[in-house]
Amino acid sequence: MSGTKMMFEKFMECFGNWVWVALFVISVLYILWRIRPENRKKMLLTILLVGVFLYNGLTFRLLSHFVTETDSFYRFFWLIPITLVCAYAFVLFWTGKQNRIVKLVISCFIAVVLVVSGDSYVDYSKTQSIENPYLMPDDVLGIATMIAGDKEEDMPTIAMPMDFELVYRTYDASAIMGIGRAPYAYFRSNGYEEVARTGHYLQESRLARLVENGEKQDVLMVKSAIIDKEIDYLVINNHMGLEDYMTLLDCTLVGEAKDYSLYRVNYNSYDKVTKKEEVQKIKDAMGISEDEETVELEGLEKEYQILAVNDLHDFLLDDSVMEEKIETVYDRYNNLFLSATGVHSADLWNGMSAILDSYQTDGIVFIGDMIDYSSKENIRLFKNGLENIETPYIYLRADHDLGAWYTTGENSNEETMGLSKSIAEYQEVFVKDYGEFYLVGWNNSTSPLSQEGLERMKEIFAEGKPIILATHVPLDSIVDDGLRKAAMEADPEGRAKLWGENCLYRPNETTQEFLDMVYAQDSPVKAVFAGHLHFKYTVQLTDNITEYVLPPAFSGKITRITIK
Amino acid sequence: MIQIISCGMMLIILFAVFYFWSNIPQRIFGITWKTISEKIIYGFFTYFICFQIVAMPLVWLKRTVTEVSILWGLIVLAVTSILIGTKGKNLKRDMGKAVGLVREKKVLILMTAVVVGVTCFSVLQSYNGWDMVYYIGNMESALEANRFFFYDGFAGTKLEFLNLHEALSMFYVHFIVMGRIFHVNARIMGFYGMRALCVLLAAMIVYCFGRRLFRGDEKKAAYLVMAWLTFGFLEMVLHATSFFMFVRGYEAKGFAANVVIPAVLYASLGLIQDCSKRRRWVELGLAVFASVPISLTNLVVVPCAVAIMALVIMIQKRNIIPIFLRSLICVLPNIAFAMVYMLYLKGVIVIGVM
After folding, report:
1. Is B240 near chain A, with CB under 8 Å?
2. Lowest-pLDDT range, A315-324, A521-530, B92-101, B141-150?
3. Beta pairing class for A251-256 and A260-265
4. Nearest residue on chain B to A179, judged by CA atoms?
5. Which tens digit of pLDDT belongs to each residue from A433-461?
6. Is the pLDDT of residue B178 over 90?
7. What's the gap between Cα B315 and its chain centre?
């Protein structure tokens, strides 16, 4: 669209309609006719200069580009005092020498035309329906009073219908809006289908579907949204018939105003799912299942169990994704990271993190790529889930946990590292002592092992205690090329994404020294658990060590490792 | 109800303060404004310029709402007391003149009644929109948290940095301070206090316009105000100035569209008529200097108006340098604000929130 045309659209937003334009032009001409000749010259000169310098397509383009947004250009039209000019012309006319009847007739004519053609933006009916001095519905005051009396936190988060929120926010600032302006605008203008395709504001849109439209969606998905957005209260229209559904969501009725009710989220039933049937319900809905692997160590006094979770690629879309990467991210979101029942990794994580403790294992090891790219939203999402887990865990990072993939790229390594460290403990090498063996984690194994990491590994290896090694990137076998071939087949570019001579990850000096320690005949390593390849594979790494490449968690798979 | 009464009291006190503070530029520049309306308008600009100078550093230093309120309350009290002490008798004289004028020209009573009626209509509008949520939400958050702009106006979540889009212009800060001093909720302040102030100041400027256009004819000026209000009622479209006055007068944009820009046009009209009068340059300077403290919208819009006015005068008078220099001096504050804002947008000025 040309600058002139766009400018004209903005012009009409200030004028309203053609009747006003006509009245304004007539008023200007009348004023020019009535004023003194010297003033007429000045007025004409002003109009000419305003047209030449301000109200033209070029200026519009320049100002819209460098100074203000196109949508805000209408403010420049405030320099044309439309009503004042019309009023001035009218007073000149009214106090002129014409016949009074003529004046009256013309005045009435103008008034009638303006009233008939007018498209007022004011809802005059609301002027008569004031319920209280705050000029807001009593319902809002009622709900605000209930929250004030019930809240345990200083600033509870509330999900409420948009029109309700518009009023509530201006009255009670001691609350956080669970669905803000941007999610509502996106959801309302694009619809849920587009939200589901892009994953943009997915959780907020689920909440909006509930509180705005009264849609009874999958309970687990809505619960996932409630957990993710940390909702404390929901405001529900009484006429939607959601009473029973709210019970399913574990929400308790706090009170009822005229048309709306306030529900409190019962977080005790959200944080941890321990009942067997509840756990099973989540597993069925989300497509979560366990793989079993057994490692036999000689001379163990008891049996140990460890859960391994890898390659969740947990993510929610936010505004940090680069424009040119957005379609790639949509594709990953919709086609790549889905469980067996079609659940997205973000929802999967909300369900998974709630049930991990129910396995009652001795530990959990997260073996990298737990988030898809480092962004504040993804970090927050993953961290929220981790906070629910009481079982001792170690979290090994990999390239996706630390890389600002797809985002603006402004995050430096230092920043993404800082973000990652805010989730959980970070060490070059993680060591978990189970008394009879060590669980050792090679952190960030998509990068070579650092000198510090190597020194630590040497210390641990020197102790001679059996080691179960966890690494995100698998190690290439020295006795079997099956894994390498399978990895090359699975990769679209034919790369073997393993650590080894003929692989994508070629060891540097320190890493090679570490690998030599692993491959050594007297190596204390008894088994290696890895991820990264997104398929399951078991291979003999050496004659003594078995390597287990685990299936990805985004497919709903968790691996229970029994060590006996 | 008590809050609404407090708002009414606030308006009366503010108008008195504006009236007395108009003596500051009158004294500094050796000029005289003849009508109460002019005194209130230029007192309002003077007051806002002073508020900007005092409050902006405090807001940037992340001082509390209470601290800024106490400091500003004491400053207003001290300055106004001095001005009442030295210029108090002028009020009696001006009021006497005004009463005499009203007795002589009954149409002024009608005009006052219309303006009051329109103000009542305006304050009773319960328009809800996201902009309202943002601005009133910001104010309410500040009153609740006792900190300026620490929380997002829409969602109420804590921010990382001060948003200079808000913290560069002290308009909302002023009414947050008023809310704290008079114990008024932001919504009541916005709907009743700010909207009423917007309508009343806008009507005063139009009245001044009328006096200037009709060469001091009070009767015609009153007609102009009433005709302007009537046309405003009929042109209530989304981005019309009248909509920003009658309905969205609690926004800085409402004041920009109906107080600042008309004041700049008023001064420009005076200068185009006769640019040799010092008083008119002072009027322009005050309106322009106060424009950004009142609304960031004026950052570019007002200099555009000044540039065109200056061009008209330069062409007319064929006298470029003095007009250019005077106009440039008038817009210097805007240039300074624009530079600060650019530095903020470029990420040079970053003020973290505790």
Report:
1. yes
2. A315-324
3. antiparallel
4. B155
5. 999 999 999 999 999 999 999 999 999 99
6. yes
7. 31
Strands A525-530 and A467-471: parallel
Q: What is the mean pLDDT of residues A191-217?
A: 87
Distance CA A98, CA B35 (A): 31
Q: Residue A532 has what DSSP assignment?
A: S
The domain made up of A272-563 has a fold known as Purple Acid Phosphatase; chain A, domain 2 (3.60.21)
Burial class (CB in 10 A: 0-12, 13-18, 19+), B24: middle
Sort A8 into a burial class: Cβ within 10 Å, 0-12 / 13-18 / 19+. middle
Query: What is the C-alpha to C-alpha distance for residues B251 and B244, in angstroms, rounded to an integer?
Result: 8
Tokens of A431: 């060591």
Every domain of chain A and the residues it spans: 3-121, 138-270, 272-563
- Two structure tokens written together for B115: 């303006």
Contact across the interface for B227 and A94, Cβ inside 8 Å: yes
CA B333 to chain centroid: 16
Taking the C-alpha atoms of residue B126 and residue B104, their distance in angstroms, rounded to an integer, is 38
Alpha carbon distance A441, A460 (integer Å): 11
Task: Please name which of A311, A298, A297, A270 lies closest in space to residue A559, comparing C-alpha atoms.
Answer: A311
Those residues with Cβ within 8 angstroms of residue B97's Cβ, 6 or more apart along the chain or in another chain? none
Average pLDDT of the residues of chain A: 87
Closest in B187, B253, B304 to A134, CB measured: B187
Helical spans, DSSP H, in A67-99: 82-94
Range 286-315 of B in CB contact (< 8 A) with A: 297, 300-301, 304-305, 307-309, 311-312, 315
Decide: residue B216, CB within 10 A, 0-12 exposed, 13-18 middle, 19+ buried: exposed
* Contacts of range B69-74, beta carbons closer than 8 Å, 24 or more positions apart: B69/B177, B69/B180, B69/B181, B72/B177, B73/B177, B73/B181
A222-249 pLDDT per residue, tens: 888 888 888 999 999 999 888 889 988 8
Per-residue pLDDT of A96-135, as tens digits, reads: 887 888 888 988 888 888 887 776 666 665 555 556 778 8
Q: Under an 8 A CB cutoff, do B213 and A88 touch?
A: yes
Name which residue leads in pLDDT, A549 or A111: A549
ipTM for the complex shown: 0.93
By the 8 A CB rule, do B161 and B352 touch? yes
Question: Mutating which of B124, B194, B199, B237 best tests the A interface, going by the most A Cβ atoms within 10 A?
Answer: B237
Bridge partner residues of A365 (DSSP): A308, A394
Q: Where are the alpha helices (DSSP H) in A98-180?
A: 100-117, 138-150, 162-171
Q: In DSSP terms, which residues pair with A562 in a beta bridge? A: A294, A305
Chain A neighbours among B 13-32 (CB < 8 Å)?
none
CA quadruple A180, A181, A183, A187: dihedral positive or negative? Answer: positive
Evaluate if residue A72 carries a pLDDT over 80.
Answer: no
Is the CB of residue A328 less than 8 Å from the CB of residue A406? yes
User: Which residues lie below 8 Å from residue A123, measured CB to CB, with a gap of 6+?
Assistant: B127
> In chain B, where are the structural domains located?
2-345
Alpha carbon distances (Å) from B167 to B55, B141, B148, B274: 10, 14, 8, 37
Looking at A3-107, which runs of residues are DSSP E strands?
Answer: none
Radius of gyration of chain A (CA): 33
The candidate with the shortest Cα–Cα distance to A468, out of A513, A510, A529, is A529
Q: Between A and B, how many residue pairs show a Cβ–Cβ distance under 8 A?
A: 208
Assess contact for B159 and A187: CB atoms under 8 A: no
A295 DSSP β-pair partners: A563
Segment of A64-68, A173-177, B255-259 carrying the highest mean pLDDT:
B255-259
**Residues in contact with B129: Cβ distance below 8 Å, sequence separation at least 6, in sequence order:** A166, B248
